[in-house]
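Model the whole thing, not chain by chain.
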Amino acid sequence: MSDDDRVPAQAWRRVHPVTPALKGWKTLVAVVAIVGYQAADDVRSAADLLGGRGWLIALGVVVLVALVGWGYAALAWRHMRFAVTDEAVHLHSGVLFRTQRQARLDRLQAVDVVQPLLARLLGLAELRLEVAGGSGSAVQLAYLREPDAQRLRSELLALAAGLRRPSAAGAPGSAAPGTAGPGIAVPAVAGSGTTTLPGAPVDAAPHAGEHPAGAVPAPAAFEEAPEQEVYALPMPRLIGASVRSGTVVGLVLLVIGGVVAAVVARDVSPLAVLLPAFLGFGGALWGRVNAGASFRAALSPDGIRLRHGLTEQRAQTVPPGRVQAVRLLQPVLWRGPDWWRVEINVAGYSQGQEASRATVLHPVATRDEAATALWLVLPDLGVEDPRALVEAALSGRDEDGGFTPAPRAARWVDPIGWRRHGVRVTRTALLARSGRVVRQVSVVPHERTQSLGLEQGPVQRRLGLASFVVHSTPGPVAPRVNHLDGRVAAALLDEQAERARTARAAARPEQWMRERV
Amino acid sequence: MTTPPAERPTDQPAPHPSDRTADLPGDRPTGPTPDRPTGASLPFEPEGVTWTPVSGRLATARLTALALWLGPVLALLVVLALATGASWLWVPAAVVAALGLWGALLVPRQVRALGYAERADDLLVRRGIMFRQLVVVPYGRMQYVDVSAGPFARRFGIASVQLHTASPATTASIDGLPPAEAARLRDRLASRGEARLAGL
């Protein structure tokens, strides 16, 4: 309503006209499936029905449902329009219940281009803008032609970065995202096979990801910011990692159990039980491979670019400073090949079933790649030798790498893993290390700390221990250090509150291409 | 954010005198390290922090709620035991009575353990005797503040203030504030948050 006044009429755009058909086919499939399922209950009478003129009626019903569904979708399409201004994205939608949504671009947390299989075949894509507003707060623009979606993404990212439209501003000082190349010096880690230390890129490009030095007058239109690939996940490793999972172990145990039962009972009926189990496990495995397939990460001035997916492809862009926390985790079975899963917290990716897909920074990383992934998020770990620190965090214990470990008393509360509990505070971030069986490291940049907590149970109090908790935005990472010495934890709480404050004061602005004010 | 109407005149509108904190160290057991240096801040007693306790009426409210829950159950069990003459029915009755007694002893201590402190840049909230918790919320990280008071709480003239950051893990709620104090705290938090506004 009121924002109609501020949006010029010609700025309103519509999504692609094929959208209703693309969205409607799911409804049709569901209806046909339900009808088919009902009919299958009584195959004979269904056959009788279809044998006569019944099939005409059936076809008529399907066509009618399709028409009604398509009509509604077309109506919805007519009512949906969006506009991009310098400050915000406006989206109007809804037939009966109208919604007007306005997402401020300086609050943009991530931009995803999602292509389900069918949309990809038609050359369409969905653009999804994540803002930190809790569940359902994303602005979904579906479907656009793929080049349009790409262009729109570049435009949104450039505007969110604080650049002005060339026509409107024409300010000579405004940097084009396309010219920011010198600012990023990405190490050749992925393909080369050399063990490039993340320490090296930090030294080579101390201001990596920061405001690029060479600002050049903006070109006529927003160009897609250049990107440099940092790592890619080879398919064999993904399959190997999926096989080395609890799912497969469970499946193998089940098969052995089934076969043993069948042999003992001299009856094949126990094997029939395995079929649904196979389907379930197979589905889980397929989901994992599907999501992680052709995973690639790249760095651009717009932030981290992630591309992945086999049937449904997803290209994510997480602008600088939007990652709230990182976790590196090693399941037991991945210890042999030394693989790690790297996950991130991004406000906006918090809720929904797709969150687990969107919050992966690297599905299966080698140790080098894990360090590189961490470097992507946090170019400056705030220590002299970042690689040594990462090593100590990943596999060290006690005081390795300058960590403050849990005291000896902690062995009563955690007899197995107590030597792994530890915390290290650097100039820029807090590293929490834990887990002996399932190794785990969480990293939180100081300026991303939301709030801090201290917890103590009765046993811990007897032993003079306390747990230190860092509250981060919703996501897979929940950083905490268990069983620290009580005094250490209290001191940490005090200092960390202070550190978070100073780090926030010095943090770069939300619009990452803007000069610091 | 709604401020509960102050139905009855609050007898203690100002923040309570924090002399209650003086007897709190008694709650802390002299653990295995009695030779703690007095200078170092104890885990839940940061240095230079004066805790503001919550209203004692919270204890009354919670005890009343407890009595309203357990009372009918206990009465029913006793009546059943008397009516049927089944002696085993006294066992659950005794259990319920013991629960009530335990609650009656625990609740006032729990309420006394609740406290908050406003520092220059953050708010501290602590709770719990057995399982202790201390939360530090920087003002600049606050997304919104809730003031709520149910019908029961309103009868006792208390309200609760809850702080929300972008993290759902931030459990910074202060129960049992007199409505005037709750409103004061809300406005103060809001203005301080605005002054130190930061993104995510």
